[in-house]
Amino acid sequence: MYDEKEKTILFVDDEESILDITSEYFQRKGYHVITAKNGKEAKKIIESEQIDCCFTDINMPEMNGLELAEYICITDNTIPVVIMTAYPSLDNTIRTLQNGVVDFLTKPVNLNQMELCVKRVFSQRELFIENLLLKKEVESKERLEKLNQELFYKIDELNTLNNIMNVFSTIGISSDVFMRLVDMTLEITHADESRFFVINENVKSPIEVALSIVSQKSGNIDHNKPVKTTGSIISNAKGNTRDDIGIDKIIMENISDEMPLLVSKNNGAYDLPVDIRSFMLVPLIIRDKVFGVLTASIKKENKRFTKKDLYYLSFMAHNAGFAIENLALYENIYENLFATLYAFVNAIEARDPYTQRHSDRVTSISIAIGKELGCTLEELDILNVAGHLHDIGKIGIRDDILLKPGKLTYEEFENIKQHPVIGANIIKKLGLWDRERLVIRCHHERFDGTGYPDGLKKKDIPFLARILSVADTYDAIASDRAYRKRMEKNKILEIINEGAGTQFDPEVVNSFQKVYKEGKIKH
Question: pLDDT value at position 241?
């Protein structure tokens, strides 16, 4: 066997911080470390140095990691190559497996994980070289089929990992993460039951928040496509059963070391409930603290969990932890940002006592009309944001124009007409709310094309902006203003109705009339 302490490792990555950290770490471990910023630099090193193992990123300038792997495979296919990437894909996976790559690590890579990979590579290098020679010498059908099968299993594994990453990168709210965790556990490991528990230092036992179970009904149930039941459960509220107590106990006894647990066969050593034949447990860690625990159970005699199942479960928990942390950060930023912008709107409305709470009322009216028109929840959320912020552009309008009690001059009105553009530009600079930005920009467009700022006509005006336009106009004429008192109810409705087809979308006006008659619009 090779003595890894005397071996030379080549790290190739265009991020200097990664090279510095890995170089310092593995030098302390006794390895000889050489670094390169791209494949082109690495080629020159390989031509002049004896390299025993190469770790390389995929995306690099001048010569990427896949091209480097191909070069190493052609030049010296006894050098094991380990690919590191943050964005694994099926095409890259196939290319790397065809070019002598022995492992595929997903960034961010833990240094301990990298060290374990190095030890495994060196301990198996003799066998690796032997297998390469055997591949060249043996061309029998049996050997080729075996190699193809190994390739298939590797691709299948990477597809599973890629699927896990994609699922947790697209979840929009934190609560969905827990439900997706337990559902995917059944799908990937073929468990009969999966639970997620939150660990809280203020309570004595884990709190169960998600459960997914394969139907245990006898008869024509296809266990390859399990029938699942999912739901949110608080164990303390429903009372602990004997099974709950057993699982709670094993969680509390094994969670302190933050390590996953695999009980391939329940022989009573862990005090599991007797109906559980095989069991897995992995911690979900956020900011170096255990946030929760994911468990999986098999209750059938003929099935057992494997180390590969435990690996998948750990990978899911790892990605779920990142998703929860990122969602929590995003939700906090989103709430703070919206609160700041809304404060600006309040400041604008506070300048004019006649328009205070205008944005709140416009939002409420818009949502009422939107519901009548069958808007989706996403569209109603867009109306909520755009409604509250539709006049934020008035922060750029001078007080002597904005608060003028008399009729505006042509120049003053042209100045006022800029507030939708100013508001849209404020939202644009935040890099958020693209659809909301368009609604804000277009809420003064007219159905006949004579509005501002762009003179859009009919269906060219965003649908939600057509809704906001009716709500904004109604609240404006139904409120006291610096230059006039609010209009009478009949006059208000007459103006809205007469505007159908010219100022407003007739369909939106019809829905406005209906919700108004039903008393859903308060003023």
Answer: 41
Do the Cβ atoms of 362 and 472 come closer than 8 Å?
A: yes
Strands 81-85 and 101-106: parallel
Q: In what order do the strands lie in the sheet with 32-36?
A: 32-36, 8-12, 53-57, 81-85, 101-106
Per-residue confidence (pLDDT) for residue 202, from 0 to 100: 59
CATH number assigned to the domain with residue range 4-155, chosen from the 4 options 3.20.20.140, 3.40.50.300, 3.40.718.10, 3.40.50.2300: 3.40.50.2300
**This prediction's pTM:** 0.43
Mean pLDDT, rounded, for 207-234: 52
432-436 LR contacts (CB < 8 Å, sep 24+): 432/334, 432/337, 433/382, 433/385, 433/386, 435/382, 435/462, 435/464, 436/382, 436/385, 436/386, 436/389
Confidence of residue 287 (pLDDT cuts 50, 70, 90): confident
Rounded Cα distance between 426 and 418, Å, is 12
Residue 475 tokens read as 């609240």
Each residue's pLDDT tens digit, 90-137: 666 666 666 667 788 888 878 888 888 888 888 776 676 666 566 666
Which stretches within 281-356 are classed as H helix?
307-351
Residue 502, both tokens: 């010219």
Q: Give the C-alpha separation, 281 to 230, whole Å.
A: 19
Architecture, CATH, for domain 352-517:
Orthogonal Bundle (1.10)
Q: Which residues contact 13 (CB under 8 A, 6 or more apart)?
A: 19, 22, 35, 37, 55, 56, 57, 60, 84
Q: What is the DSSP string of 365-382?
A: HHHHHHHHTT--HHHHHH
Class of domain 174-328 (CATH, top level) = alpha beta
Cis-peptide, bond into residue 206, ω within 30° of zero: no
Of residues 443, 397, 451, the one with CA closest to residue 419: 397
Q: Which amino acid is at 381?
A: D
Are the C-beta atoms of 293 and 196 separated by less than 8 Å? yes
Per DSSP, the residues of 139-182 read --HHHHHHHHHHHHHHHHHHHHHHHHHHHHHS--SHHHHHHHHH
Give residue 119's pLDDT. Answer: 85
